[in-house]
Design brief:
Number of strands: 21
CATH architecture of the largest domain: Alpha/alpha barrel
Mean pLDDT: 87
Radius of gyration: 23 Å
CATH class of the largest domain: Mainly Alpha
Helix content: 25-40%
Oligomer: single chain
Strand content: 5-15%
Number of helices: 17
Strand order of the largest sheet: 2-3-5-6
Structural class: alpha+beta
Shape: globular
Length: about 550
């Protein structure tokens, strides 16, 4: 007999039980994560693995008064119905989910298309629900689109470029379905998506991990697709850093928001896709050995660079504040010549004594100190963040809950820019006004990434609290795309209703919280070969 108690919130000697399996009469152990204090003097709260016997739990179960099963929230059924309504079929087979099913909006724009990044939470929801076929169809069709000739005006894009989105065109007279892909030529600003290829590789690995089916990833077509993406990213140029140089608007933040250069979102996704590619590529396949060696070399350089130069906590902020400038030679401490006077005033109050995060961007004489949620959550899932850094990121979220979560999870970035800075950075973008859209807006889709990061770091209370906030509003507000305001209190002024990834993000968060084993699809364990530069973040000292 097998009993699965999903994420039972049970306390046994200060231990948070995450998942339990009792098999036959064997004395199985409970794999759990510590959610209390490591030392007797209560100085640190570091994620810690513990082992508890089944007998120990049963002895304490009466006193816990905690139920060991979940009643499904009424919102879950409605969310599944809404997600299925967004499905689009190609020649009779489900292929993806469109961005939004909003009949109240006059203009459809491109919300009737299947976006690669938007489909990821939908794909994870279907995988977790035991419906992998739609994900397989999506992976194969987008791989087919990768092989198309890609042009913007007279310029030809690289072979590895994946589409930002595609649309299924139906001809009722001929009874024929065709695909139309957008590689950036129709996007606002005409920017190609740098993240599409990364999400495709990450999703292929999630499919493989979920189904146990390695045959799809090992097909010559998929192996070639991975190689093309990797070759495009690893191409040699004039770069002096292992990070990936990008244009503004090349990722989830797809409008001008000052993220040009080396944005944390792209670097974290790049790192995760490199690690996933290394797991998916067959060493014996032609052309793979060389690319795998290049991936390993890049991973070591990238992890060092990110953990050293992008990480910011109280101690590091104080160091930057005291930096000397105009230093020459390899002995320079201020390697990027960051001017201390460029540190924004808000940061000194925002930075807690305990906590830290990866800053938004680092390049010569420029450090973007803004917090970006997606990049930091992916850094935790990819193990780009060390365990200490991952814990510090969660500490920051707890310490600055009102700023980063507010009344609706989760701020896409913090803080908002306004006034003269807004004019210069966004080009007076009327959609990205302060505390709206990408400029400090709150995006419900990000709750799945937050929940995954919480599970990995053993901080389930944060996830539960955030999900409770979302459940109180999302259905009542018709699943909006984003919320406005410093606290995320108002439905976004141009937000689409019935936004698919808001729906899917909620479902994925709920399913992961009920069965944390789903985390394995989108989480990578720390690679011991990449020795962390920071043995313990300064934010963990007292």
């Amino acid at each position: 007999m097998t009993i699965l108690l999903k994420t039972a919130s049970v306390r046994v000697s200060s231990i948070q039980i995450m998942q339990v399996r009792v098999q036959n009469k064997d004395k199985s152990v409970w794999k759990s994560r510590y959610d209390g204090d490591v030392s007797a003097n209560h100085h640190h709260r570091t994620p810690y693995r513990a082992i508890v016997t089944v007998e120990a739990l049963l002895r304490n179960s009466d006193s816990t008064k905690t139920r060991l099963s979940f009643e499904p929230h009424p919102l879950v059924g409605d969310a599944w119905d809404a997600l299925r309504r967004s499905l689009v079929c190609f020649r009779g087979q489900p292929l993806g989910t469109i961005a939004a099913v909003d009949s109240s909006s006059g203009e459809v724009l491109n919300y009737d298309q299947v976006f690669v990044r938007d489909f990821v939470p939908s794909a994870l929801a279907f995988l977790m629900n035991g419906e992998p076929e739609i994900v397989k169809n999506f992976l194969l069709k987008t791989l087919l689109l990768q092989g198309w000739e890609k042009r913007i005006d007279r310029f030809k894009l690289g072979e590895g470029a994946m589409p930002a989105s595609f649309k299924v065109l139906k001809d009722p007279k001929r009874g024929v379905d065709t695909l139309a892909a957008d590689f950036g030529e129709s996007a606002i600003g005409r920017v190609a998506p740098a993240d599409s290829g990364f999400w495709w590789i990450i999703l292929l690995r999630a499919y493989t991990k979920s189904t146990g089916d390695h045959t799809l990833a090992e097909t010559p077509e998929c192996q070639k697709g991975i190689r093309l993406i990797m070759n495009q990213c690893l191409a040699e140029g004039f770069d002096t850093f292992p990070t990936l140089l990008c244009a503004d608007g090349c990722c989830m933040i797809d409008r001008r928001m000052g993220v040009y250069g080396y944005p944390i979102e792209i670097q974290a996704l790049f790192f995760m896709s490199l690690r996933c590619a290394l797991l998916l590529l067959k060493p014996e396949a032609e052309g793979n050995k060389d690319i795998m060696e290049r991936i390993v070399t890049r991973l070591h350089a990238l992890s060092y660079h990110m953990r050293t130069y992008f990480w910011l906590d109280f101690h590091q902020l104080n160091d930057i504040y005291r930096f000397k400038t105009e230093e020459y030679s390899h002995t320079a401490v201020n390697k990027f010549n960051v001017i201390p006077e460029s540190i924004p005033d808000w940061l000194f109050d925002f930075m807690p004594s305990r906590g830290g995060y990866f800053v938004g961007n680092v390049s010569p004489a420029r450090m973007d100190f803004r917090w970006f949620a997606l990049g930091n959550c992916v850094a935790i899932l990819a193990s780009l963040a060390t365990p200490e850094q991952a814990g510090a990121i969660m500490d920051l979220i707890e310490e600055r809950w009102e700023d980063l979560i507010g009344e609706m999870p989760l701020k896409i970035c913090y803080p908002a820019i306004e006034g003269h800075e807004w004019q210069n950075v966004t080009g007076c973008d009327p959609k990205n006004t302060r505390w709206s859209y990408h400029n400090g807006g709150s995006w419900p889709v990000l709750i799945w990434l937050l929940t995954a990061a919480c599970i990995k770091t053993g901080r389930l209370k944060i996830a539960r609290r955030a999900i409770d906030l979302a459940e109180a509003r999302l259905a009542r507000d018709s699943w909006p795309e984003y919320y406005d305001g410093k606290l995320g209190r108002y439905v976004g002024k141009q937000a689409r209703k019935h936004q698919t990834w808001s729906i899917a993000g909620y479902l994925v968060a709920k399913m992961m919280l009920e069965d944390p084993s789903h985390l394995g699809m989108i989480s990578l364990e720390e690679d011991k070969a990449m020795n962390p530069v920071l043995k313990r973040s300064a934010s963990w000292t007292v």
